[in-house]
């Protein structure tokens, strides 16, 4: 006689979470030797809910201090509650600085990193003479005058498909440094400048290095054409200081083939 | 021979500070038996700078969790640095959640509370299905549907000179509860509703009680006319729950006679 599982045995499902967080009090998304990571807090909340060990795989490894409105992560579970209930049930178990925005079931072979995506990041610059306390954790304070028009001219060179090797941290290990930036906007509202960038993927620290390079143009230390020079240089050319983490927010990840259900 | 002071003895000056703070980590403006107050942290920083004991008098006693962009306070000192340098020198001694925006010398008889003023407060309501972590300390999260038009109709009754006794905390001790509200706006941008109110003064918890009453109208638990009923009632009528402190920001205090220098 064959040892068969009963037909009502719980099936394995892959659950995708869209996660917003305030990164101020964490060492980043990924589990680190020191400091509490968003991934570890979330993983514990999931295991507490589903009552089985889970592996949580995120789409982006955000650094310490970086925020998210739409981080994406998946885990597998045998729990059989409706897909949208995971969000609610997890939010009851999570601290207030991590909030699941949405939960959906996806195909078991769906991988948040190897699927084709467009990602959107925002980098905020508070440009006024004196800092504002309530903005200190969510924007980079820059008291110097900025030439926004020059920054926009520089930003235009970033758009398109380029080898962004000079816009990646030297700590990066990836071989293929070609990426496509679909769109880069610089908008100003009151004292706040928001850089919004959308692309098919970003190298390690790429958005913060782009923000730093555009600030150099904004300070008129470099001309807008400097951005093109750095892009086109076959030498390693460091475009400027990396802008600090706390100005950065992972806004959205769109999966090009959508979120196919099983 | 008379015991005269030398003519170059430092003169007493009254310095006015415009202060912005993130109230999240404080027990409010005023010194309290338990918890750290903004006033005490600021007073210590001033004494450390000027090297003499000071009395710091604030214009508004903001509650725990309430934020400020333009709190006003004064102190007297013999220190003779230029008036605008106090701001810079104090910011070097203050934590990042308290930032002096401006310092000016005023007349020695200037009192931040007994001078005629107009004060502006903002109350922020995040109105969406799921909370946003980076907004959690700076807005009141309300997931229910809100009838903004009804709230605006209710808000119109608040404007003008009224006895606001029913819009004050029962803990208040003031006798004269008549105040003038010059302006009350309700604006929506994305998910964020901002109530901006300007008046010649506000009773204890008045803005938060007004926000709570308008939310009751927004939920359609009460009609807009309910606001008028509460205002006109000679009985003690409690208009609804007081909206929580962390949605509130003291935006600006304008002194009608200006800041007269000595």
TrEMBL record, chains A, B:
The active site is at residue 63. Residues 19-115, 156-255 form the Pseudouridine synthase I TruA alpha/beta domain. The keyword Isomerase applies. It holds the Pfam family PseudoU_synth_1. Its EC number is 5.4.99.12. GO terms for biological process: tRNA pseudouridine synthesis. Substrate binds at residue 121. GO terms for molecular function: RNA binding; tRNA pseudouridine(38-40) synthase activity. It comes from the Bacteria. Keywords: Isomerase, tRNA processing. It is an enzyme of class 5 (isomerase). Formation of pseudouridine at positions 38, 39 and 40 in the anticodon stem and loop of transfer RNAs. Homodimer. This is tRNA pseudouridine synthase A. It comes from Catenibacillus scindens.
């Amino acid at each position: 006689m064959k040892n068969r599982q009963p037909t009502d045995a719980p099936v394995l499902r892959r659950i995708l979470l869209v996660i917003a967080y305030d990164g101020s009090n964490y060492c980043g998304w990924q589990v680190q030797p020191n400091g509490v990571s968003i991934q570890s807090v979330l993983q514990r909340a999931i295991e507490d809910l589903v009552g089985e060990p889970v592996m949580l795989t995120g789409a982006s490894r955000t650094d310490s201090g970086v925020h998210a409105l739409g981080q994406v992560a998946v885990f597998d579970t045998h729990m059989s509650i409706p897909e949208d209930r995971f969000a609610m049930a997890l939010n009851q178990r999570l601290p207030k600085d991590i909030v699941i925005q949405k939960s959906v079931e996806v195909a078991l072979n769906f991988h948040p990193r190897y699927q084709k995506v467009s990602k959107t990041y925002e980098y905020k610059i508070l440009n006024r003479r004196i800092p504002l306390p309530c903005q200190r954790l969510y924007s980079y304070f820059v008291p110097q005058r900025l030439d926004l028009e020059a920054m926009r001219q520089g930003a235009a060179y970033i758009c398109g498909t380029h080898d962004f090797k000079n816009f990646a941290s030297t700590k990066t290990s990836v071989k293929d440094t070609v990426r496509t930036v679909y769109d880069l906007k610089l908008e100003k509202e009151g004292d706040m400048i928001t850089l919004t960038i959308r692309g098919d993927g970003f190298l390690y620290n790429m958005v913060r290095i782009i923000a730093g390079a555009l600030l150099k143009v904004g300070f008129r230390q470099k001309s807008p054409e400097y951005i093109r020079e750095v892009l086109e240089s076959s030498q390693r050319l460091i475009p400027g200081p990396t802008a600090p983490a706390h100005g950065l927010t992972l806004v959205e990840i769109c999966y090009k083939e959508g979120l196919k259900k099983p």
